[in-house]
Amino acid sequence: MTNTTIDLLAEAKERQAQTVDLRRRIHMLPELGNELPETKKLVLDAIAGLDLEVRESQQTSGVVATLRGGQPGQTILLRGDMDALPMQEETGLDFASTVDGRMHSCGHDAHTSMLATAAHMLCGHRERLKGDIKFMFQPGEEGYQGAKIMLDEGIIAAGGEPDAVFGMHVDPMRATGVIGGREGNALAAADTYFIKIIGRGGHGARPHDGNDPVPVACHLVTALQTVVTRRINVWDPVVVTVGLIEAGTASNIIPEFANMAITVRSFSETARDTAERLITTLAEKTAEAHEMTAEVKVRRGYPPTINNGDFVDLVEGAVLDNFGQGAFARDAHPRMGSEDFSYILQRYPGAFVFLGCAPKGVDPATAHSNHSPHMMIDEDAMAMGAAAHAAVAFEFLNGGVD
What we know:
By secondary structure, the chain is an alpha/beta fold. Helices cover about 35% and strands about 25% of the residues. The strands form four sheets. An eight-stranded mixed sheet has the order 1-2-4-3-5-16-6-15, with helices on both faces. The chain is elongated, with a radius of gyration of 24 Å. About 45% of the residues are buried.
């Protein structure tokens, strides 16, 4: 570590007006999935004129802009995701979504604007950088595997593979001014199970003439929790939530089938595979015991997000050097959410951390979380987020800011 002589946070605060402006323009025009034409245009406009090699994804609206440092060295990738969620905004903000049924309720608008500001900041110090920086503006994080598509497409490796990667996510349930992270598991894998219990329909007055799948589905709800607690190692946990049960059309009709949709969260491939085996067997054999059949389909989602311990140490050092004691907190536990940055961390060492941004005057413990229609952030936190991107890049390439 070296003592900082460039005040990155002060620089970010000088650019705060443009950071907020870009965030609000993106917030007002939320787009879903991998095709984000308006958001992409805003990003390209925001970085226009900078000394960057800009590559545009051919399969998504993603952009990778590379800054060549003034001296040879390694390469780090900084990532910001851009897509929104399909939900109605209820914040009442002056710059609330103008598109019905769409909202930036996960903070990707802030991620994108912070990364664009970091690009401006680092371009201003290009001659001092010992290596290159890739700014990855990524669509499709919310279930569309945008990171994996861009990886497989080769746009991340084009012009030189990164030696390390860094991502950041806003957290309205953490105090502004604190960045949190941990080595190892940061986030979980997320898989979705679709179970169809097939019985025999009939009249509600004569259940013995049919074979009702509803009680079997209800039994499975509790049996799933039992199999998790009794058959899966508590130190390699799995969380199972039955989010949907659907059956029947009227009170006096025994339905032909019952549908269930389940989310399963885990932290290792071992636990993931064990859960799939146990849940599939449980559903099939429970149905069989009631002389029915069960169809189980599993859709594997994002893998666990696993941070490199050495890189987390580097991030912590960069944050403390640039922002002072108390600016970084080691998270004791991973989170059960999921992230497609996990695909990037499978290929390159790096870390994914969380930026505190609780709204002013709100206790972080009671703030509306990501994915809430009421989710808001303290925009002042974005200056720290932009500066943190720059600080981590400097720390990795130069061993600090001097």
